[in-house]
């Protein structure tokens, strides 16, 4: 990821001397994350943070209008969809994300300190359980969806200023990564087939 940082800053038009937050709510976007971003833009700008913000196709027009209504918005890079997640991850110092299994597995592989905001609109509240499992292992932070508007940006900015905590979270989430998961699953399936012969 470090080798792509320069390319990432150029691609997104970011200042390499500023800290960067990546906000992702999935390809369709997440209302809570988007509303929390709009509520916290003044804080982000005042803190000198820059943001790569994927708002999702359903929200792009609305979020563009709401962002344009803000007097201070420098450093806020709004995107409908991120085609180069590798560069978004490379640029990010801190990530704000939902807590689905795919998001968690990607973030573990790229070793990013993350603030999870689990979606409450999923079966068996599994995103909250996913996030809590990481929090218990000191591998991530969590803000509940119902608290996000008031807390999400504050928690992310506090983490952005604390490089020691970033490093600790990065190391812990990396321990959960399974870079060869598909290979292990394939071997297990083959093993099961062979045992039935």
Low-confidence stretches: none
- Computed Rg: 18 Å
Provide the spatial order of strands within the biggest beta sheet.
3-2-1-4-5-6
Oligomeric assembly? single chain
Q: How much strand content do the residues show?
A: 5-15%
Count of runs of 4 or more consecutive helical residues: 9
What shape does the CA trace take?
Answer: globular
Q: What distance separates the N and C termini?
A: 44 Å
Biggest sheet details: 6 strands, parallel
Helix content: 40-55%
H/E series = HEHEHEHEHEHEHHH
What is the residue-averaged pLDDT? 92
Question: What can you tell me about this protein's structure?
Answer:
With 197 residues, this protein is an alpha/beta fold. 52% of the residues lie in helices and 12% in strands. Strands 3-2-1-4-5-6 form a 6-stranded parallel β-sheet, with helices on both faces. Strand 5, helix 6 and strand 6 (141-142) form a beta-alpha-beta unit. The mean pLDDT is 92.
Q: TL;DR of this structure?
A:
With 197 residues, the protein is an alpha/beta fold. It has helices at residues 5-12, 31-46, 60-68, 85-91, 101-110, 126-136, 148-161, 163-174, 181-196; strands at residues 20-24, 50-54, 76-79, 94-97, 114-116, 141-142.
List the helices and strands and how they pair.
Elements: H1 5-12, E1 20-24, H2 31-46, E2 50-54, H3 60-68, E3 76-79, H4 85-91, E4 94-97, H5 101-110, E5 114-116, H6 126-136, E6 141-142, H7 148-161, H8 163-174, H9 181-196
Helix pairs in contact: 1-4, 2-7
